[in-house]
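Quick note —
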Amino acid sequence: MLPTRSALLQTAFVVALGLPGTTLLAQRGGWGGGWGDGARWHDAGGARGGSSRSAGSGEGLVQISRFRIEGDAALALAHGPISVVAMPYDAEVDADFAGSDRRFNATFEAAVEDRLVHSGYDAATISPGSGQVAEVRVIRIEARPPEVPHKPVSGEVSMGVSNRGTSLGVGIMIDATKPRGALISTRLETRIRDRASGQVLWEGRAEMLSREGDKRWTDQAIADKLSAGLFDGFPLKIGEASVRR
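Predicted structure written out below.
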């Protein structure tokens, strides 16, 4: 479905004209899913194991927002039975994603369930009338289109004439890098409700950018990273954070 630039090799070639007196020169050429848009991506180092091509793009950086209910109701979090299900269809949010692959969504739901069990929940016990429900939604969009093909060789030629002879300068730039794939945004949203009352107890979102075609960022790797960041310190940590592991 889908997340290095080699240094540009600049070679200066000196061309001899074979004429007497020729001078040779070389030149170098909120609650309820009300998430806002416009998340800021900031990154000074690029993805782990990546190169400067990733710097500034935000690849591999996870942006997190988490909210928790106030009062005694929050004490119900992180213990008791819980079921992980797909978030109910929202015509406004999900209109462009109704055809998403069920197996793709299941990968993220399993990652969320694993983190919830790690936090203290019991996902093995089925309790239709009690416990909690974790609703999961995954949204993946193209944040930036793929790069256009590069010119493998480009350069300039210049000539000059002086009282010392004729000069010719050739500046050639060789770009051996391949165009990068599209930059993909994957957002994992989870909402935990009390099963009996339907009250939302906790809600969070984790989002990251990855490069299409990057073998490091399989669906499983992205699901694991987003869920780990989202539920880090659950349920005590709330607010916004940026993490890279």
